[in-house]
Predict the structure.
Amino acid sequence: MNARTRPGRVPQPRLGRVRLGLVRLRALLAVLATSALALGAATAAAAPGRPAATRAPGAATATTTATATAASSCDTHASSLRPNGPPQVTAGSFMAKIRARGHLIAGVDQSTYHFGFLSPFTGQIEGFDIDMIRAVAKAIFGDPNKVVFKAISDAQRIPDVESGTVDIVAHTMTITCDRLQMVDFSSVYFEAAQQVLVLSNSHATSLASLHGQKVCATSGSDSLNIIRKEGAVPVAVTYWTDCLVLLQQGDAVAISTDNSILDGLVAQDPWTKVIGPPLTDEPYGLAISKQHPDFVRFVNAVLEQLRTGGQWAKSYQQWLGTPVPPPPKAQYAG
């Protein structure tokens, strides 16, 4: 999906006004980041039966030969397991264990506006990805609020799934063949494409035009490889809001990642713009441990209900606006 055009963009202001606005924005971002970390710590401490945030000893990380072979010729749009009818919590299933625990544990973002962010108005983590998780919780418990959200960085996504620290990850996470060797994914629930964000007064036209210059992305994202491939100098940080601050301070000339994420950054700083053609195809999936194929099928059944029942479109309109495209059509490995 290409970044939406934004009619009526505010004209470029005088330099002094820009600097004042950026100082205020940096202060706001710092407050939001601190609040988000505090909420994550408080939630972790209050959650009963919550597993430790470290890797379990002996957690499975090795990939089988069959999985490696499949990944080498994988289809990222059709790599998931087909659901077995409507979502059902059957005896002995991983979903039954989650129900017995009393809550779903989800690894999510806390700083990506529109998808997973800590709202300063409600004090809750909200967004399109969060709606996907709440739908899974509702299918298990009948209550979408029975979720413990664990705020994690891009780099933590796969380790936390592999170790069992979280049951599922919803974190603008692209399905790639390399990642499929380590974790399983749901069917594609969102389509994005990598593009570039620069300041409004930049003369850059594409990532290729930034050869030899610093371009920011998060550690653990697949954006870094594209930046390096195009001849720019990748700068890795923890969160996308960190990239925005580097851009505002002049410590990076651009940010390059999925246009879904860049749209959120533009909404936070109107003195930026998205440039250039789409560089990659970025199909998003919900990440789940390879130890729980029954849960993968269950989640896919939930996503199918969201697509056909209108909830996917309602969530899209709430967080991303209009026009609302049709949801990605579910495809499966077999």
User: Anything to note?
Assistant: Residues 1-71 have pLDDT under 50 and may be disordered. The two ends are 26 Å apart (CA to CA). The CA atoms of residues 277 and 297 lie 35 Å apart. The chain has two domains: 38-48+79-190+283-320, 194-275.
